[in-house]
Amino acid sequence: MAVFAQKMHTFTTIFLLLLMASSSTALLDAHYYDKTCPQAEKIILGTVYNASMHDPKVPARILRMFFHDCFIRGCDASVLLDSTPGNQAEKDGPPNISVRSFYVIDDAKTKLEMACPHTVSCADIITIAARDVVTMSGGPRWNVLKGRKDGRISKAAETINLPAPTFNVTQLIQSFAKRGLGAKDLVALSGGHTLGFSHCSSFEARLHNFSSAHDVDPSMNNEFSQKLRKKCPKPNKDHNAGEFLDSTSSTFDNDYYRRLMAGKGVFGSDQALVGDYRTRWIVEAFAKDQSLFFMEFAASMVKLGNVGVIENGEVRLKCRVVN
Known about the structure:
It contains 12 helices and 2 strands. By secondary structure, it is mainly alpha-helical. The protein has 2 domains: 2-162, Peroxidase, domain 1; 169-299, Peroxidase, domain 2 (Orthogonal Bundle).
């Protein structure tokens, strides 16, 4: 593991040097807080670690929070803003109702304001925390580019632009392309589902009255579909019922891809990656080689973290409200 970690670090360093040389990342710098808040990453890691020890759901929730933030208006912490009497914010949009653990970011921000007032943005806190939960769960570590500013706009209506668990591959590719991300990024970032859980509502359409020809989605493993039908009957009175997105849901690994190859993807959008020639070969490669998945996931997380970086934002004093 030590040898692999060293190789991974070497690759990431080279990759980031190339990235930082490009104009698209000119605003961001891995050493952005070295002089103004050198303890920033240590404070964030400690906060995330303590929260995860008390609640094992935190890693998956923080990673999902990062995805949902960056896909709407870019990585500007708009997902953290509370609604006001005159505006319904992103966090209250339908796809984000189940996003949780905002308190972890709040706690980190409070500690950072004590250590380095008015310095570390909420957008950077989410980005660093997302990296930390992956590493803590057994996944790769990479250097996070920093220097994002926080946005002032957050609209629930814009959450309609998040990729849905019912999307086919064409829809997914189009959605990711709008953020400057390719098919490999799509498949790699979908691997974030190795952590986490979904309620029945996000996949029950695959289990009952799927189409005029099939009651159950035919791309789903038969034994697996019967298991899910028992967990998610129709009608379903248990609103907490659902399924883990892979069989090692607290460990960041490539089990997600192996399950897709076996027809055991929970979301239709996940299973679709195997059924389309544009993405199947990538799923196959990641299912066979976990170190390859780790390398590509880290690279795609850096790319996603560069989406929508703004120059004219602010550093919020409290992540839930604009200054």
